[in-house]
Write a structure and sequence with these properties.
By secondary structure, the chain is α+β, with helices and mostly antiparallel strands. The protein contains ten helices and 40 strands. Helix 1 packs across helix 3.
Length: 662
């Protein structure tokens, strides 16, 4: 494996189990003897973590009180680190040095820390919004928050021993379009309810150069139940990028009561939707939402689609305007892999506030089920939902669901209710749409949906009236989820096997389309149709030829091979049915009509042709089919051999020394 794609993980040797007595109010614990220098180091690191935990608690209170959301303050969990504060600066440096980074072996890293401290700017991307970073044509100059996301997946693990609670936690940082350097760690502590004592349990750290998504190996924890301690986990993330000038430093934390998850205890997120409905016969098939268009016949690839539900008849029509909501496919009625897309009865969702064609949505239904001790009252029920773009990097956070009890997040909770069992069993059903807004709109491949639900309760012992707090948090990971859009404008002429041309809207399943100048033809196995709210790319060549396609549609160039339409420039030569044609015009034009696309090739046909043969002629231009579009989107991420060339020269020395110490 290339060294660039295999970052090393290591446990922080100085953070070994140690009890550190520190007071929230400035008084400490008595010492029986003078501590050694090593103990002082451990105590200093734990003391800094405790200080950061106090800052984080106050910051969260401010976020909640001011109603701030993801645009300015992460998702209410990702606290920007202020390097102008000496205590926070010391925390960052000591964490990095404990992980093996020093000014000698990581000179650029520490130079960038000093610059960020001097500039007093961390956690923000300057003038570029996340949407601008995703879409080069965006001109919005307002600053909406960091291009980097920082997450802390913490979940409990089932066990058959009711006296032991098991947990796993990891630190994750990801930046849109990657970063030159990224670092994340995760450290677990056992603490008392008053947060005056921290006992370090375990820690992991990870760093990477020219990467997109970095996640530490998990810490695996086994804690004795009934000790009166609680679990507190924190994570620090660092990312630097020379092209944007961003210095991202953030801190996040999670906590849990120490409870064994077993046969008589529940802490689960049961997900009914989203799930894979149509593609069980495809290898590694994603859960797919087709937001504006998708295959309605043939080899179906849409588990969920946008469309219009008639208020009188209740009939849902996929991809029909005006869009009102999203429906799930009925896999039995649709009979995949070949069939007609038919919506499932009763599985339809409308976004709160109406459907916005420019937003990315995910439907969600299921139940959060959690056990609580007797005599408890629920104080808060919170959640957060993130889409992590595993290949391109970055994350998108769902907005608040109005009318729900969600503090900030995307799980559309409904009214909770209790079972009368002992211990109490809290049921929190959810059913609705998570809205990821406008900053995550490309047809992403290989995304990861990360959900977390947290309940906090106050419990009162009726015998001695002792009041205690109770916290449970559940993390759920849904991998391999994506959204699809890429098509040709209606009216575009495609060439059939016999050399004739027909408009795309007349192509049917079973038709054969010409794929190259050698007379090879492939069968249409699926037809996609729908709309496109973004401008199309209009191409015009020196001979007067024109075509309009969506920005991600594959176009075959004479020199660069297959590229997405949005990458084309004036002067570039495209392959056509008669040879080559040089572009004299590339512009974005609004379009309100329908767009179409096709999947080409039966299994028998594809067995005898190369993958690059899945092409067709559109207005005479050689373009790719839907499968080529999906492949191209994945290939946009450079392989490991290219990463070093992407790494800014300022980081080369750090990288060489990183290799040496590994």
């Amino acid at each position: 494996m290339n060294v660039l794609s295999k970052a090393s993980s290591r446990r922080i040797s100085r953070l070994v189990p140690a009890l550190v007595c520190l007071s929230m109010f400035g008084t400490g614990c008595s010492q029986q003897k003078l501590p050694s220098r090593q103990e002082v180091d451990r105590q200093a690191l734990a003391a800094e973590s405790l200080h950061m935990a106090r800052l984080y608690a106050r910051w969260q209170q401010e976020v909640q009180a001011q109603g701030k959301g993801d645009r300015k303050n992460g998702d209410g969990r990702q606290m920007p680190i202020d390097l102008s504060d000496d205590a926070q600066y010391s925390f960052v440096k000591n964490r990095l040095e404990a992980a093996g980074n020093t000014p000698e072996n990581s000179p650029q890293l520490f130079r960038r820390l000093e610059k960020a401290r001097k500039d007093k700017k961390t956690g923000t991307p300057g003038s570029a919004t996340r949407e601008a970073l995703l879409h080069s044509t965006t001109t919005d100059e307002s600053s909406e928050g960091s291009r980097c996301g920082h997450l802390l997946p913490l979940t409990d693990v089932a066990t058959t021993d009711a006296s032991v609670a098991r947990f796993q936690a990891s630190g994750l940082v990801t930046c849109f379009n990657g970063s030159d350097y990224s670092y994340a760690d995760v450290t677990a502590f056992a603490t008392n309810p008053e947060r005056t004592q921290f006992r370090v349990l375990d820690t992991q750290s990870l760093e990477e150069y020219a990467g997109a998504v970095l996640e530490t190996p998990p810490v695996d924890l086994s804690l004795t139940v009934g000790t009166g301690e609680e679990l507190f986990v924190d994570s620090m993330a660092v990312a630097f990028d020379e092209s944007t000038g961003e210095a991202h430093l953030s801190y996040t934390a999670a906590e849990s009561s120490i409870v064994a998850l077993g046969a008589r205890d529940y802490n689960t997120l049961s997900i009914t939707h989203p799930r894979e409905l149509t593609g069980k016969h495809y290898q590694d098939n994603p859960i797919r939402t087709c937001l504006e268009r998708g295959f309605l016949s043939g080899f179906l690839d849409c588990d969920y689609t946008s469309g219009h539900k008639d208020p009188v008849t209740g009939v849902f029509t996929p991809f029909a305007k005006p869009f009102t909501g999203i429906a799930a496919v009925d896999p039995e009625a649709s009979k995949p892999p070949m069939g007609e897309w038919i919506s499932a009865q009763g599985q339809y969702w409308e976004p709160v506030g109406g459907y916005d064609i420019s937003h990315l949505y995910v439907v969600m239904s299921g139940e959060y089920l959690v056990s609580l001790p007797p005599y408890c009252t629920v104080d808060t029920l919170t959640s957060d939902v993130n889409v992590v773009l595993m290949e391109r990097g970055g994350k998108c956070t769902a907005g608040t669901a109005p009318g729900s009890s969600v503090l900030k997040g995307g799980i559309p909770f409904q009214t909770p209710f209790f079972d009368t069992s002992t211990p109490l069993l809290l049921h929190v059903p959810f059913n609705g749409v998570a809205d990821f807004g406008k900053d995550c709109l490309d047809p992403f491949q290989n995304a990861r949906l990360m959900l977390r639900a947290t309940v906090k309760a106050t419990c009162t012992n009726p015998i001695n009236n002792r009041v205690t707090t109770y916290t449970r948090s559940r993390f759920q990971d849904i991998v391999n989820i994506d959204w699809r859009n890429a098509c040709l404008a209606e009216g575009t002429q495609v060439t059939t096997a016999d050399g004739k041309t027909v408009p795309v809207e007349q192509v049917k399943l079973g038709d054969k389309l010409l794929t190259n100048g050698k007379g090879v033809a492939l069968t249409v196995t699926a037809v996609s149709r729908g709309g496109e709210h973004k401008p199309l790319v209009k191409l015009k060549d020196e001979h007067g030829g024109e075509v309009m396609v969506t920005e991600t549609h594959p176009m075959v160039t004479a020199k660069r091979g297959v590229v997405q339409a949005r990458e084309l420039k004036v002067g570039e030569a495209l392959l056509t049915r008669t040879g080559t044609a040089t572009l004299v015009g590339v512009e974005r034009v609004p379009f309100s009509g329908q767009v179409f696309n096709f999947a080409l090739g039966t299994p028998e046909e594809l067995a005898s042709v190369a993958p690059e043969a899945r092409t067709l002629y559109a207005n005479g231009y050689l373009v790719g089919d839907s499968h080529m579009q999906a492949t191209l989107e994945k290939q946009r991420t450079p392989d490991a051999r290219e990463l070093l060339t992407r790494l800014n020269g300022a980081w080369h020395e750090d990288f060489r020394r990183y290799q040496a110490r590994r």
